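Continuing the series of single-chain predictions for the mutant panel. This is the parent chain; the variants come on the following pages.
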Amino acid sequence: MPQTEAPAPHIEAAPRTRLRWWTELPLIVLVYACYSAGRLVVRGDVAGAVDHGLAILRLEKALHLNAEHPLNRLFTHAPWLGVPADFWYASLHYVVTPAILVWLFRARAEHYRRVRTWLMTSTFIGLIGFTLLPTCPPRLLSADNGFVDTMAQYSSYGWWGADASAPRGMGGMTNQYAAMPSLHVGWALWCGVMLWRHGGTRWTKAAGVAYPLLTALVVMGTANHYLLDAVAGVAVMGVGAVLAPLVLRAAERVRAALTARVPALAGRSGGAGSPIVSGGCQTSAGERIPRQRETRLGSGAEPGASSQDAGEGAPAPAR
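Parent structure:
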């Protein structure tokens, strides 16, 4: 029976451009540049920042909310709580979030762009809030408001000075009036969602629940944020989650437009546009596919074929 030829394998569309770390670094630089610009804008508006902080306290009093004072008193009078809380505030924000980003980049690449866009979108919303609504944190209000700056109280235990989580002598690099919203809480919530959704064990899911909750307690107990700052941080992450798909689609359209205008930006997929030979089989120059060998052996050598083309095991021509 004549053998039927197997159908050619289906060739899938080329995958999206691979993730590259050098394309991610500019995003981090952009976020820091925007943060620095906002810090410079609000530097001279100390009176306005204090007024905003006092307004938040009055609003919380009207709503019968007062989580900051008891937590701050507890952390102030119990160094075994206050010192670890200061280390938590001064370090984990800058360690856990990048670590989870790297983990997603390496192990969950199919989700990375979406969740990175969510984090970046929410961060930009927070930076807008810092710029338009500079807010004095509780620790920088006058003492008659009942708050103690635990970062200053326990500064001898850590690397920070009187300028929140900034190392000593580098307070000018931080925005001291970036209390509303709390990106400490917002980023911790993002980290918690990533651990819950993409972590594979019960421990990672438990950490995903505990990390944002403990961070919320820490930012209030250390007098760095108000309760409503934490609520605003959660709200910002919610808005960022809604806007992230729109931002991602807009970025894809921009990338497609740039690729169409500048072909060099298109990723080379290893021979796109090259002719397909041998019915989809890859061959090198001068190499013959098996069907050609079989035909040649059955019907004789091709005209002009050399002895090397006769194939393995073919008898040499008689002299």
